TrEMBL record:
Protein name: Ubiquitin-like protease family profile domain-containing protein
Biased composition (Pro residues): 167-180
Superkingdom assignment: Eukaryota
PANTHER family referenced in this protein's UniProt entry, alphabetically: UBIQUITIN-LIKE PROTEASE 4, UBIQUITIN-LIKE PROTEASE 4-RELATED
High-level lineage: Eukaryota, Fungi, Dikarya, Basidiomycota, Ustilaginomycotina
Pfam family, one: Peptidase_C48
Biased composition regions of type Polar residues, renumbered to the chain: 129-142
Length: 408
């Protein structure tokens, strides 16, 4: 029965419940649903022993990570009200913000924001930002005008000086092999190409080309790649993960606008401490203040790509599992390799993401959730005898369920 409850799990004051239909979405060739994603994110980041093992010592504590519900981002992208999902939520109190992103076409991707509090502290950091070397303009202070010790080079016709060195005269103008066009000459008519040895003495024209063979000319320098956008260390950073497509920059813009709105509506005192004063009842004042907030860095993370069309949610959970095992190390590697395709990166970086583990994630999740379900049914057999249905009309970001008795 699809509405049969198979698991009720709680951690850090949050409760997730899974139905049989949710568990069935982990079958081979099936799109994993949002209930599994919500449970998986909280299980990986808040469970004391995820998958039966304690988390790495380098993983942040659960109270340092904010996890947004899967239903929130579609509201942000559509411009719909979302107050009931965030009225009891403060995204600036913790070091990381985890955002599952649904594109509306059955595809899931991931966004992780590091240090969102820097959005509020941006004005306070302006003095420090000005003291740092500029990374956006590429300009620096001009060097003092020190007279050069090199001798002045002048041509014969120039006025001689004490330290002048006579340079050879400039080379003659290049010979034009085509006669000049005469007045009234039709454009369609052409002249034969004249050889220099037909006009100049033999000792004045260039020697013939060397015979064909390996080129002795120096290799032409390759065109340098386009420069990466400047990175502001005093602003939040949006890391975008996608297992199939290039991440959409519009998703980052929607999330940044959401963070700005949360800062303006809930952290007026913090912004005022940095010198940002505005009137909440005046839309123009709010908009002017919004433009003064620091802009977030946006980084596309090179990650392993899915091989099936229906594994995007599992790769999302895999990215979270790997990244939060050691965030500082992953951030360092990501910033060192940003702007490069995953397949062209060193093998050490590729193996850091454990691509083989991602390909086997479906079987691992299904087996483990089934084990958790069996233990829960033994501990609470009465609760498992009720069927449930998802109810999205709630104020918290967790999906609660409404019980109903199974008809006889």
């Amino acid at each position: 029965m699809l509405s049969q409850r198979v698991l009720r799990w709680s951690s850090h004051g949050k409760t997730c419940q899974l139905l049989q239909g949710d568990l069935d979405s982990l079958a081979a060739g099936v799109q994993v649903n949002d209930a599994i994603i919500d449970f998986g994110l909280r299980y990986l980041l808040t469970a004391p022993t995820p998958f039966g093992k304690p988390p790495p010592s380098t993983q942040p504590d659960a109270d340092q990570i904010t996890i947004l519900d899967t239903n929130l981002f579609p509201l942000l992208a559509a411009g719909k009200p979302y107050d009931k999902w965030t009225k009891n939520l403060s995204i600036f109190d913790k070091g990381f913000l985890v955002v599952p992103v649904h594109s509306g076409q059955g595809h899931w991707s991931l966004i992780i924001v590091a240090e969102p509090v820097l959005l509020i502290q941006g004005q306070q950091n302006n003095a420090l930002r000005k003291s740092l070397p500029s990374t956006s303009s590429g300009t620096s202070k001009a060097a003092p005008n020190v007279p050069s010790k090199r001798p002045t080079i002048q041509h014969k016709h120039a006025h001689p000086s004490k330290t002048s060195i006579v340079a050879p005269p400039p080379p003659p103008a290049r010979f034009r092999p085509y006669p000049p066009r005469t007045k009234g000459h039709p454009p369609s008519r052409s002249y034969p190409l004249l050889r220099l040895q037909d006009i100049l003495p033999i000792d004045e024209y260039d020697p013939p080309d060397p015979p064909a063979g390996p080129s002795t000319l120096p290799a032409q320098p390759s065109i340098p790649p386009s420069p990466l956008p400047p990175f502001d260390t005093l602003a939040p950073t949006i890391y975008m993960f996608d297992s199939k497509y290039a991440p959409r920059h519009s998703d980052a813009k929607h999330l940044e606008a959401f963070m700005q709105t949360e800062a303006l509506t809930k952290h007026r005192q913090g912004l005022a401490a940095g010198g940002l004063l505005y009137n909440r009842s005046d839309p123009q004042s709010m908009e002017a203040c919004r433009h003064k907030l620091p802009r977030c860095n946006v980084v596309t993370v090179p990650v392993p790509q899915q091989g099936q069309n229906y594994d995007c949610a599992l790769y999302l959970l895999h990215y979270v599992r790997q990244f939060f095992s050691h965030p500082s190390a992953y951030i360092s590697h990501i910033l060192n390799h940003r702007g490069k395709p995953y397949d062209e990166l060193p093998r050490v970086y590729q193996q850091m993401w454990a691509p083989e583990k991602a390909r086997n994630a479906r079987k691992e999740w299904r087996t483990h959730i089934k084990e958790l379900s069996d233990k829960w049914i033994i501990q609470d057999p009465l609760s498992s005898m009720h069927s449930c249905e998802h109810n999205d009309d709630h104020d918290d970001e967790i999906t609660f369920l409404v019980q109903r008795k199974i008809p006889n």
